Give the backbone structure.
Amino acid sequence: MRNLERCILGVLAVALHQPQSSQVIPFKHALGCVRALVNFSIMAQYRSQTSDTIAYMEHYLDQFRRMKGIFLEFRVTKSTLAKVDEQRREIRHQRTQTSHPEAPCKRRRIRDDDRKEEHKRRMDLINSESHFNFIKIDLVSHFSDHIPQFGNIPMYSTEFGELTDKEQIKDG
Amino acid sequence: MWLLNVESLRRRGAHLPGDVLQHLESTTSAVTAPVVRRRILKGGRDDVSNVLDLSKVSGVSLESICRELIRHSQHKLPTERQLPEDHAILQSLPVGLLTQLERPVVAFQESDIYDIQRARCAGALHFRNQGSRNDWIWVQGGSEEMYGALRGRLPAKLVALFKIRDYTGEDALRRVAAVWILSAVNSGFPSDIHGLVTVQIREDAQEYTIVDVDPIHGLAHLIPEGERRWLVNSWIDLRMFNEVY
């Protein structure tokens, strides 16, 4: 994870560097969200903190919270997917009930409008059903209280112990 | 970490044993002189003995090597220590080509712990049976006010690392590097969107420049954005995160 955070922003910036007009805002939000999270994570690795650095951490976390919505569609659960399928079936069933005009250009326009509306309703449903309420996301909000009380975060890292374990296992 | 714990115990009024306190006093009060850390060139190659060989091995024209050496000598060295300007003498000066520069960098938020950064310059040779490796480094290009967030430094690619002995003057050994310096886009200010500084090859850029080993600050990490543009990755470590923003 630590190695990923070192290069993810640069790689993402290159991958999203020439957006189409419709992609400008989502790309900006995605980059802003990743940037805020990486900034927060790097500042949490400081071995000594001041009130300023803690304020920066809180600021980055706020930024992340404001922009994380852009990744909501990747937090879809199985139950949400089932609801999306059900909604799609319902919409298509409603469409079959209504009569369509004969002219092909009108039919095409109606089909495009239907597709757009279906996509919009799908995204609305996903946004309303998906969330970021899991423990690891909640945990980071306690860092700014933890540091003044108990000291810096790397002091409590388990990776040193894990590394020692590996060496001890090899030594037998 | 250990010192922090002992200090915090002291603040809380814990009764530390007398011998522990005595040991602490003796270790903390002793002021040790700072160790002078130097850049070390390593990995000498046997196939280069003078400037002529250097030009053959590195694939750079002899004319341009001599021209750059003279330019570097005129700009950076005092008059009495300058390299000879006669190309025939310059070509015969003994040269040692090296493949590695070890640069000690003070660890972030530490004063006496150093990280050793190793910049490799394999030239056209393969590095560990793979492609050639010529690392990106930071070179001091001006004062701290220049190049925005880069604070006077510019990323450069190593072309060659070598030592040249001037036996015609004071018999001095110069440790120099041939580097390919990039220039900062947008005066070195980071982008509003992703926060990274963009660098590029200038249209009028020289093939390479010769610099002393001393203004090399360590390794740089660049991510290619196009054929002639790169993004400076300032998230690569804590030190860079604090220096480039």
About this structure: The interface with chain A takes residues 1, 4, 8, 108-109, 191, 193-196, 221, 223-225, 231, 233, 235-238, 241 of chain B (CB under 8 Å). Residues 37-243 of chain B form one domain. The first strand of chain B starts at residue 40 and ends at 42. The CA atoms of residues 198 and 231 of chain B lie 5 Å apart.
